[in-house]
Amino acid sequence: MAAGDVGELLVPYMPTIRVPKAGDRVYKTECSFSYDSPDSEGGLYVCMNTFLGFGREHVERHYRKTGQCVYMHLKRHMKEKVKGASGGTLPKRRNTKIFLDLESNGDLNNDDYEFEDEAKLVIFPDHFEIPLPNIEELPALVTIACDAVLSSKSPYRKQDPDSWEEELQVSKHANTLVQMDNGVRIPPSGWKCSKCDLRENLWLNLTDGSVLCGKWFFYGSGGNGHALEHYKEMGYPLAVKLGTITPDGADVYSFDEEEAVLDPHIAKHLAHFGIDMLQMHVTENGSRDNDIKPRVSEWEVIQESGMKLKPMYGPGYTGMKNLGNSCYVNTVLQAIFSIPEFQRAYVGNLPRIFDYSPLDPTQDFNTQMAKLGHGLLSGQYSKPPTKSDLIEQVMKEEHKPQHNGISPRMFKAFVSKGHPEFSSNRQQDAQEFLLHLIHLIERNPIGSENPTDVFRFLVEERTQCCQSRKVRYTERVDYLMQLPVAMEAAVNKDELIAYELKRREAETARRPLPELVRAKIPFSACLQAFSEPDNVEDFWSSALQAKSAGVKTSRFASFPEYLVVQIKKFTFGLDWIPKKLDVSIDMPDLLDISHLRATGLQPGEEELPDISPPIIIPDDPKDGMTNHFMEPPDIDESSVMQLAEMGFPLEACRKAVYYTGNMGAEVAFNWIIAHMEEPDFAEPLAIPGYGGATFPAAGGAAVVGLDNQPPEEMVAIITSMGFQRNIAFHALRATNNNLEHALDWIFSHPEPEEENETTSETMDLENHVNANILAESDPEGPRIKDGSGRYELFGFISHMGTSTMSGHYVCHLKKEGRWVIYNDLKVCASERPPRELGYIYFYRRIPS
Fold first, then answer.
1. What residue numbers does the annotated binding site cover?
2. At 579, is the pLDDT very low, low, confident or very high (cuts 50, 70, 90)?
3. When you count CB atoms within 10 A of the terminal residue's CB, does the N or C end of the chain come out lower?
C-alpha cells in the first residue's frame, strides 16, 4: 500500500489517537483482564486512546464497548540462536531487536535462544495491520504517538502525585524535621493511643513522640484517626508505624504529603526517642541474623529443601512471581482461591464481571480479583513441558525458557494504593494483609453472597468486675482466631535448658552452634491459654462507679464455615529487637472447639449497670495525671438539626452552634460559610484546653454495645436523604453511630432496587459501577454461617525469619487428597508438610 493510502486509511481515526502525556499509564506489558503479555502466543494489544493493554481474547470486548479502533500490537518472539561454524553459538552482541520494556527475565541471557520484538498498528474490525516503525507512510502525529508508547516507562513507576506506584519517594520533611527535646522515651512494647485505649495500628509522631492510633478502616477496624487529628492540630508531618521497625527501615507516613514516604534519617529520628534501630542487626545471641544457620533451620524444613519435589501443573497449580518481598501477598491469595466460595464469586462470575467492568478495569477491585482467580485456576499459565521439550532438554542438557506462573503486579499496585505498609516494597505481615483483603472485599460487594462470610463469626466477650462480681456480655464480629503460644507448657524443657547451655558455651568458645532444639508446645495448651481469662487494663466498673480490677473471657457465639487460626509467634524483645518464638506446635488435622461455644448470661449472674464512665478532662493538656470530671458542653440541639437538614455534616453543625454561643441557627450558618473550607470542618468537636476531648451528640453513648439504639436525630438525617430507616439503623450500628462513616457504609452497600440506576459519564464514577450492578445481597441477612465446631485442616501459611518485616512466606494446601507446596513460582507435591511450624492455619468445617 502506498504511503498516501496508509495516511488516508488513518484519517477517520486520527481524533481517537492520543500521544501519552505525563502521568498517563501505558500498559504495554500486561492485559487488563488476563496475564497475557507480548510474550504470549497472541501478543498484547495496546489501545492508542486509553493505553490499556488487552490479550487477544479480550481486545474485541474493548473494541465493542468503546468503539476504539486503533491498537498497537506487541509481540516478543523467541528462537534458537544461529550456530557458528564450529557448532557453538555466535559471539554475544547487543540485541537491537529488543525494544520492549518488559519485566526482566533471567531467560533473556540464555545462550541458546534469542529474542526479537515486533510492533505494528492494527485497525479494527478488519484487523488491517501496519508494521512499525513506518516513518515515511504514517502521519506525524501517529508516529509521535507510537514512539511515545514504545518508549514509555512502566505504569508502576512514580510519575505524578496521583500515581499509585509502590516505589516510595523521600519525604520533603526528612532533612529538615525538627524534633522536640521533651524527654519522651518509647518502650519496646505496651503501647496504646494517648487519646483512646486502642493498642493496634499505632503511629509514633517523629516530632513530639506522641503515640496515636491510625485512621478508621471499613467495618470498624484500624483506629479512630487520632494521629491525623494530631497533625491537623499541631502540623507535625511525619509518623512511623510501631511494630514495623527493623534494621532495614520502617513504615513512615507523611500527613502533609498524604502518602507513605522514605526517611533516610529514620535511625537518627528514632534514636531521639530511645529506639536504637541499628542494634536490631544483632540477634539475641550476638551474631548477625542468618550469618550462622543451624542444621535444621526453619528455612530448610518449611521449604522442604534437599528433597526432590515433583512439579505440579494445571488448574489450581499456578505459581505467582515474587515482586520483591511480595510473598505475603502470594500465599494469602493462593489460600483464598482454594476456597470454593471465592472461586464461585469471582471466577464463576467472570464473564459478568468483565462485561460490567468500568472503562479503566485496572482500577476496579472485582475485575482484578476475577482476573487473578482465573489466572490461578484456569491452568492457562501452568502448562507442563511437552514430551519433545523434555527430550530436547535431556539430549542437549539445556533448559528451554518457560513462561509459567503469573505476576500479580497490577493487582498488588491497586489493592495497596494509599496503604502506608502494603504500598512499600518491604516485607509485611500476611495476617494483616489477609484482613486488609477481607475489608476490600466487604467494600466491593459482588453477587448474592459475600465470600468473606465464610470466615465471619461472632465472639462473645464476658467481662467481670472482680470486686462486685457483676458481669457484662457483649458481642463483636471477627474473622480469625488468635492463639497464644503457651511457652510454659513446653514438653521438652530439659532439652531446651541443655541446648541453651551448649549454645552459650559455643558462643564463648567461638565454636559452631549446636543443632537447634525447638520448644515443643502441645496444641491443647495453646487452646487452654486462649480460653483463660485476661486482665482488663484500666477497667472502669459501672457497679462501683470507679476503676477496678476486671477480667475478660472470649467464646464463640457462632462458628464460621472456615476457621482461620493465627499463632501469635511475634513479639518484641529488649532494645526493640523483633523476636519470633521459634516453636513447634502439634497442630491437629481434625480440630474440635465445640467446648468453646458461648453460653450467655448464666443463672445467678448479675449484669453490670449500663452506665458509661464520665469524660475525664486533664487540668493541663500536657499533664494526664491530674484530671477532673467535666460534663459535655451545652449545645442547642434544635439549631444543630436546622443546620443538618440543610445538608451540612452533623459534627460541623455542632461546632458552629458551640462556637457562636448558642445564638441561633442563622449566626451558626454564617460560621459554617466562613469555615467550611477548613480541613477539620467535619471533624468532631474538640474543645481547646481540654486535651482534645470530643463530645458525642445528645443521646449518643460513649460505649456502643450490640443493642445500642442509634440517636434518632442521626436516623432522621439519613432518612431525609432518601434512604430507608432500616438502612440508617444498619449503617449507624456498623459504624458506632458516626454519621460520616455511616454514609460511607451505605454507599458501600447499595440497595438492590438502586443497582440499575447508577450511571456515570466520567471514568472516576464509572470505576464504581461494577460494584453497584453486581451487588444483590440482602442487607437484612444475618451474614453468619453458624454450625458445628468440628474442623479439618486444609492449608497453612508458614513464615521463615526473625520478624514479619523480613524473611519469607510459603503456603501448603491440601488438594485432591495430597499436600502441595506453593513457594512463589514453584508449585510442587509436598513430601513432608511442616504442619508444626505454620503461622496461619486454614480449617474447613466438617459437615454434621
1. 193, 196, 213, 226
2. confident
3. C
| DSSP state at residue 692 | T
Residues 105 and 242 in one domain: no
Whole-prediction pTM:
0.70
Whether 30 and 146 map to the same domain: the answer is yes
Asked if residue 124 is part of any domain, the answer here is yes
Q: Which of 71, 579, 676 is nearest to 280 (CA)?
A: 579
Catalytically annotated residues: 327, 808
Binding-site positions for Zn(2+) read 193, 196, 213, 226
- In this structure, what C-alpha cell is assigned to residue 764? 472516576
Whether 39 and 134 map to the same domain: the answer is: yes
Write out the residue range of the structural domain in which residue 116 sits.
6-81+98-151
| 14, 102: one domain | yes
Confidence of residue 87 (pLDDT cuts 50, 70, 90): low
State whether 410 and 369 are in the same domain: yes
CA distance 376 to 362: 18
Query: Mean per-residue pLDDT for 701-709?
Result: 41
Residue 438 grid coordinates: 477481607
Give the pLDDT confidence of 788-804 residue by residue, as tens digits: 999 999 999 999 987 77
Query: Which residues, 6 or more positions from 393, have their beta carbon under 8 angstroms from its beta carbon?
Result: 385, 399, 400
Number of H helices, E strands in the chain: 23, 30
The pLDDT of residue 690: 44
Residue 834 and residue 324: Cα distance in Å, rounded?
24
Same domain, 107 and 194: no
19: exposed, middle or buried (Cβ count in 10 Å: 0-12, 13-18, 19+): middle
Q: Would you say residue 116 lies in a domain? A: yes
Taking each helix axis from N to C terminus, what angle separates 650-659 and 712-720, rounded to the nearest 10 degrees? 120
> How deeply is 246 buried, as exposed, middle or buried, from its count of CB atoms within 10 A (0-12, 13-18, 19+)?
buried
Q: Please give the pLDDT value at position 1.
A: 53
